[in-house]
Amino acid sequence: MRKIDTTRFRVATRRTSREINRTIVLNLVRARQPLSRADLARAMGVRRGAVSLIVNDLLKDGAIVEGATGDAVRGRKPTFLYIDTRRRAVVAIDIRVSQTSLMLADLLGKPIGGIVTLPTERDPKALVKSLAGRIKRLLGDHGEIDEFTGIGVAVPGMVERPSMRVLHAPTLGWHDVDLRAMLARATGLNVEIENSGRVCAVGQLWAMHAGDGPAGDFVFVSASDGLGVGVSFQREVLRGRHNLAGEFGHLLLSMDGPKCSCGSNGCWEAYVSNRATLARYFGHEPDAAPAGDFTIDDLLARARGGDLKARAAVQATGKYLGVGLAVIVNALDPSAVYVGGEITGAWDLIEPPLRAAFLERALTPAVATTPIRPVATIEHPRLRGAAALVTAPAFAAPVVA
Ligand SMILES: [Zn+2]
């Protein structure tokens, strides 16, 4: 049951139903393309004429295009409709302490070309300068694209809305950085910025289709240099009053636990981030300087190669992931939990201790059955989500009351 806010609403007009039906058509085309006007009329349970009015509107605006003609047993051959992804693209950026990645994507989020990586300069000005240079080169390499509709950026920190200022990114040491304005000025493009955990939730939400089950309520946990968490509730990513909702990375597991990047002790992040896993292996604090060029992937390789200390360090991360997930699942009761990050490359090693810790703490037998699914790094959930920051609003449900 949703209550109408009597201080913030839009009275429904004839335009309202048109706007809603237009978004429904756009989403049906996106999810099921190619499909014809007759397919749409059937899916929506309305007359063909009503669908044609909406379709013609969307064709006129350039949101969809007509493509190939299909076969018909009798009568007129249907013309298929598609989302217009030609010659338009977005730039997705994932900023992490260890490196920054860039990718071009079409309006459906499909990657165009490969992924470019560069070192993450800690000085935001220097980082923006090198990012702008890379973006310029990337755009120059893709002359077939006429329009770049914007840049979506995932950052490992807290982002204010609606200004999108990066208030605090502990692992980068950033405080109140107006990255959006700097990047927009340097590139001339519209820029959208969001916290990396929430970015993953946005990407997951928009990558899901009707056949994926009860997909509206889920939690996405992204374990990398730090730990980001995003929560989707009833097909909407939770933001909260100060855009902090879902910041479970700093959930307290133990008051005497290891030092966290946020300055406190014993946060969940300080047990399960890549830095924490490496620190456990090397026997130092997670906030200490990383051990040379040794990465989490090197550690996973050692764990697989029979290094028992490496295996124990990785499996302990699995256990602590399970402990934290139990707290979140007991509190939010989502339909599913997704786990992203390099550690998923060793899912066969971490899954048994993760599930054991989760089952031990799940409050009811029903909640214990909550699916926990790894998202492979090859799916690039952060870049996919960064692209969705720019592309998804065109498909989002209109807010009316
Ligand atoms: Zn913390």
SSE arrangement:
Blueprint: H1 14-32, H2 37-44, H3 48-61, E1 64-69, E2 79-83, E3 88-95, E4 100-105, E5 111-118, H4 124-141, E6 147-155, E7 158-159, E8 166-169, E9 174-177, H5 179-187, E10 191-195, H6 196-207, E11 218-223, E12 227-233, E13 236-237, H7 269-272, H8 274-282, H9 296-304, H10 308-332, E14 336-340, H11 347-361, H12 365-368, E15 372-375, H13 381-391
Parallel strand pairs: 3-6, 6-10, 11-14, 14-15
Antiparallel strand pairs: 1-2, 3-4, 4-5, 7-8, 8-9, 11-12, 12-13
Helix pairs in contact: 1-3, 2-3, 4-5, 6-13, 8-10, 9-10, 10-11
This protein binds zinc ion.
Zinc ion binds at residues 250, 260, 262, 264, 267, 269.
Rounded mean pLDDT score: 92
Order of helices and strands: HHHEEEEEHEEEEHEHEEEHHHHEHHEH
CATH secondary-structure class of the largest domain = Alpha Beta
- Give the low-confidence spans: none
Bound molecules: zinc ion
Number of helices: 13
Extended strand count: 15
Sheet of most strands: 5 strands, mixed
Describe the structure.
The chain has 401 residues and is an alpha/beta fold. The protein has three domains: 14-83, Arc Repressor Mutant, subunit A (Orthogonal Bundle); 88-201 and 385-395, Nucleotidyltransferase, domain 5; 209-378, ATPase, nucleotide binding domain (Nucleotidyltransferase, domain 5, 2-Layer Sandwich). The chain has helices at 14-32, 37-44, 48-61, 124-141, 179-187, 196-207, 269-272, 274-282, 296-304, 308-332, 347-361, 365-368, 381-391, and strands at 64-69, 79-83, 88-95, 100-105, 111-118, 147-155, 158-159, 166-169, 174-177, 191-195, 218-223, 227-233, 236-237, 336-340, 372-375. A five-stranded mixed sheet has the order 5-4-3-6-10, with helices on both faces. A five-stranded mixed sheet has the order 13-12-11-14-15, sandwiched between helices. The longest helix has 25 residues, at 308-332. The two termini are 13 Å apart. The model has no long low-confidence stretch (mean pLDDT 92). The site of zinc ion has 6 residues, from loops.
